[in-house]
Amino acid sequence: MKTLVWIAILTLLLSACTNNAKLPHGPRPNPVTQAPDDEKDSGPAVPPDLSHVTEPTPKTEPKSRYGNPASYHVMGRTYRVLDSADGFKERGIASWYGNKFHGRRTSSGEPYDMYKMTAAHKTLPIPVHVRVTNLDNGKSIVVRVNDRGPFVDGRIIDLSYAAAHKLGMANIGTARVEITALNGESTVGTSTANDRPIAAVGGTGSGDFFVQVASFSRREGAEKVAKDLQPLVGHPIKVERAEVNDDSVYRVKIGPLTRREYAENVQAHLHGKGYSGTTIIMR
């Protein structure tokens, strides 16, 4: 009887040791294909030549099968996707994303390519084309929104590395921007990166600036110059009639622009295209 008792005790002890040996010693590591949450994003180690990268042509596209739920939740917040981008305009901070997400699937299901002119937005329907204007330097680009984000307070759009580079903010990281949905409409000033029009930054009030290109005694001459300027600038162009010494004069003006720096940017751009002798006027 004692022998049987000892055998039972030994059996229980061995069983306990075996069970303890099977307990894990710590959490399993994440697969190497996953990026850690704290991994810092970055651009390419060697800045590439992006002069060949062109802006997409705005066009109407059907909504993506993915990325357009009525609403979704991220980090404790609910976001409602817009049914339409018609008339959409927004100002805020833009940021960009690069290597950390390069090659991964976007919310639309398309792979993210940091060298294409794309962007992420929290609520615009996917896909949609928007014009992004850098309010700090006056540069403007067109991008195709195909992803969701950025989910950081105060930021309204995440640009691809290429888009950020062309907008002059890749090295800075963020910039104040205005975004305007294009919805496939034909927009004055959309062009390739090699001949991009100067940004259209509007404004009203006593601080408006205009670039006066030329003056003519006949309206026909002014209208022709205004038409020739259309592919070169993304600003309103107008022919303004004035009386000088009892004679009518027709002036070609570009604007309004909210800051003198923007007007100077336009002036320099036009000078490179052969329009010398322009003047900046403040109204």
UniProtKB/TrEMBL annotation:
GO annotation terms (biological process): cell wall organization; peptidoglycan metabolic process
NCBIfam families per record: rlpA (TIGR00413)
Purpose of the protein: Lytic transglycosylase with a strong preference for naked glycan strands that lack stem peptides.
GO cellular component: cell outer membrane; plasma membrane
Membrane topology: Lipid-anchor
Keyword Cell wall biogenesis/degradation set for record: yes
Keyword Ligase in record: no
Domain SPOR: 203-283
Family matches, as Pfam families: DPBB_1, SPOR
Chain spans, region Disordered: 21-69
CDD domains: DPBB_RlpA-like
Subcellular location: Cell membrane
Top-level division of the source organism's lineage: Bacteria
Enzyme class: lyase
Keywords, in A-Z order: Cell membrane, Cell wall biogenesis/degradation, Lipoprotein, Lyase, Membrane, Palmitate, Signal
Organism: Permianibacter aggregans
Signal peptide: 1-21
Assigned EC number: 4.2.2.-
GO MF assignments: lytic endotransglycosylase activity; peptidoglycan binding
SUPFAM superfamilies linked to this entry: Barwin-like endoglucanases, Sporulation related repeat
Name this polypeptide is given: Endolytic peptidoglycan transglycosylase RlpA
Entry's family note: Belongs to the RlpA family.
